[in-house]
Amino acid sequence: MNVFLPDGSEMALPEGATGRTLAEAIGPRLAKAALGVTINGTTRDLDTPLSEGDQVAVVTAQSEEGLSLLRHSASHVMAEAVTKVFPGTKVAIGPSIKDGFYYDFDFPEPISETDLARFEEEIGRSVKAAHPFQRREVSREQALQLFAGEPYKVELIRDLPEGATISIYQHGDFTDLCRGPHVPDTSRIGAVKVLSTAGAYWRGRSDNPMLTRIYGTAFPSKKDLEEHLERLEMARQRDHRKLGRELDLFSFHDEAPGFPFFHPKGMVVINTLLDYWRKEHAVAGYQEIKTPIILDRALWEQSGHWDNYKDNMYFTKIDEMDFAVKPMNCPGGILVYKSAQHSYREFPLRMAELGLVHRHEMSGVLHGLFRVRAFTQDDAHLYCLPEQVEDEVLGVIDLVRRMYRTFGFEKVHLELSTRPAKSIGSAEMWEKAEASLAGALARTGLDYQLNPGDGAFYGPKIDFHIEDVMGRTWQCATCQLDFAMPERFSLEYIGVDNQRHAPVMLHRTVLGSIERFLGIIIEHYGGAFPAWLAPVQVTIIPIADRHADYAREVAGVLQVAGLRVEVDERAESVGRKIRDNEVSKVPFMLVVGDKEEAARTAAVRSHGKGDLGAMSLDVVAATLAEQCRTPEVQG
RNA sequence: GCCGGCGUAGCUCAACGGAAGAGCAACUGAUUUGUAAUCAGUAGGUUGGGGGUUCGAUUCCCUUCGCCGGCUCCA
Fold it and tell me: Which of A19, A123, A193, A538 makes the best surface tag, with the fewest CB within 10 Å?
């Protein structure tokens, strides 16, 4: 029989050939590396028989599929190990995920992290034994009988659609309900590390029982695994909570869980960020407003937040009247809009607000600056005519991309979410709105993912995702059309026809939450901010006390040039001062001693780059001012 | 909110039923230094809070608050 290889070539194989035969026929090295086989686009067990004319490819751990095959198999081996160590444990599901795998268990008794090493030991035994993974297809009745003692498996089997193939995989004396495929035997799962435990609801629903999830990862070789563990450690070093403390940017206190305290250096970064933000927005034609943090309950009833968002809101009483702390800025912004009559001639009207919002997040979800209970949204509300929507959306996309590029977030992933099942507004309205969003996206030429039915109940939206150094993606910017608010608040403008009309309202953020964005860039830069954002841009290091006056003079020159400067006058060695300033990631250091004072120069040292040699004060001031300048804003 | 883990000096960690310790940071003094840690000394803690067991609790138990890893939710 003949099969087709990925490069388009044809290969003749004996009748009854399997993926293994194919790999062996191609070469001994591939045969050794083969974990599975892709047949006509579907990854299968290596020993799956091939058929005439199949499009085939051998799967190895070099590919994503191969890795996930390996990890999925590793999860089975871990389940075997866990049930051996703790007999009576019920097993749930165990898929491969990005960078690893997990398996959910229902333990008779709670386990502890110290048990993880025992699982690893047991996994090692199973790997050594090289038990083959054997696939069997069974009837529903057989499956139910086989997993009679496994309530979660029984539930899964019951939920399988009529006529579905039910397959089981056995290795050694462990059998699992599984669609497969798997690696040929347990010796092929590579280097496995059991990482952590966590609680997880059965099937992800919070009204279901909580299971114990065990995370692990597997790599083809010990070396790959070690590299991955090193990457994890590097990411841990970049954790913004750790860097925030070390660089003295912000802190958290028991007295205010989820509410960050910003220190002077943190405020410098935030204010610099906002200076830049304001420049970009001014050029993009935005006006800035500011609305109160506490507003009357009646406003929230009118906006719909009372009905839809109450659980996340904070309340207070003033003079016996109910007020709410705002979780969003829109209702306040709308009151500003309504404070005057508007004409179509003013449109598009772009009103930005750096609004401090409070949301009662569940205690378990708080996470440094990434998830807080009070944060500043870089919000804006755009009011325009229906025919202006597409241009406005395009303008927002441009602004978002330009600002992200400033921070080196080149890769932006866009998602368009359309009308959900439960929504307000006419079908025609939605069609038009979705078309304008899609139209704007098309004009950018960017790829985007379509999420049908994922829009807000009041309108479709575009979300922007960026990826941080730890590979986590963050939704920062969002741009959504809002049909609800103009209607609820009877917003109007006078049109060309001198009649009242409802404006189209767009709601958008760029950075999302200033606090969280700060957290993201701390990790993105590993704490070493670009010079324009650095809390201290230049430290001047006098060699000895007699150089302090000259050092202060140099500092004065640089301050006049607009730089944030400190003089390190401590009675420490030069080496120590340099080390401390390197550790706090100050972009530039100027070392001044007898030579520099005599020649009116300074020896420049750049963070991470080292000594750049002496330069005259004028040159130093000009060069550093240039290096520390806020990025250009283009019109 | 739920599951599991952890709370000891500002930070990183010891001691784990029998007088609370180290390194770094801080402070004081000496040193005046040429590109990643000068030396010496001082101070710092009701061991997160509350309750219990015990002759005795940082250690064991309960409870509460916070933090960490996840789940769920979300900017």
Answer: A193
